[in-house]
Amino acid sequence: MILRIYLFILAYFFLGAVAFFFINRKKTGKESRQNWLKYSTYFLIIHVVFFSIVIHTDWFRVLGLLIILIGWLELIHVHKQSGKGPSVFYFVSLFLYLVFSLGFFSFGKLPKETILFTFLVLSIFDAFSQLSGQLVGRHQLFPRVSPAKTLEGLVGGLLFAMGSAVLLRTITGKSVEETLGMAGGIVAFSFAGDFLASMYKRNHGVKDFSRLLPGQGGFLDRFDSLVAGGSFMALYAAFCP
């Protein structure tokens, strides 16, 4: 089964590469190179997380702790760099990240199949939201907070994520209805986590959390969806075992 899932991932990366080819035809040379760098880094990240789950979830838990820690450091660093003093927004942001961090830590203790399903669904949603938005996005959802997010991107990512969840439901052995319910929650929390991270950056007047990951906006920018989506599944597993 793992081999089939891995081939499934590679097939989606191929679709992503084709989409990037058409997207980059309208970009300058510098923008095109930046897009391919982002694609390559994302390819590597997906493989690291995927194999940390399928080899042994202990590796994923270690990776999860690293993500949480670096996320904290990025939040604090961005605040200090902005020169802003303590504020209600800052402390509420830290509290929310603490809640998500605890949920994400609990998520790492769930069965391998649940972790893998969640990771695949939110990764597909995240990737195809961006691709759909760049290809056909016209209507911005949050112009001031996150100009790149569009209605078309959201719909495209949602369709790919929900359709893929149904195809991947054998991982968890759930019914189609249960699978769609889980996937809907994962997508909603992932989107919320991404939005909150964007709001934090805009409030502090920065584009990226850090430059730790080439072509990405920082660790938290890359993993905010995973932390939030994983938190949902921890909550779901607690009330709907």
Can you give a write-up of this model?
- This protein is 78% helix and 3% strand.
- It has eight helices and two strands; from the N terminus they run H-H-H-H-H-E-E-H-H-H.
- A two-stranded antiparallel ribbon has the order 1-2.
- Strand 1 and strand 2 form a beta hairpin.
- Helix 1 (2-24) packs parallel to helix 5.
- The mean pLDDT is 91.
Give the termini separation.
23 Å
Overall mean pLDDT stands at 91
Largest sheet, strands/sense/barrel: 2 strands, antiparallel
Radius of gyration: 17 Å
Instruction: Please estimate the helix content.
Output: over 70%
State the secondary-structure class: mainly alpha
In total, the number of strands is: 2
3D shape: globular
State the low-pLDDT regions, or none. Answer: none
- The H-and-E topology, N to C, reads as HHHHHEEHHH
**Proportion of beta-strand residues:** under 5%
Number of helices: 8
Strand order of the largest sheet: 1-2
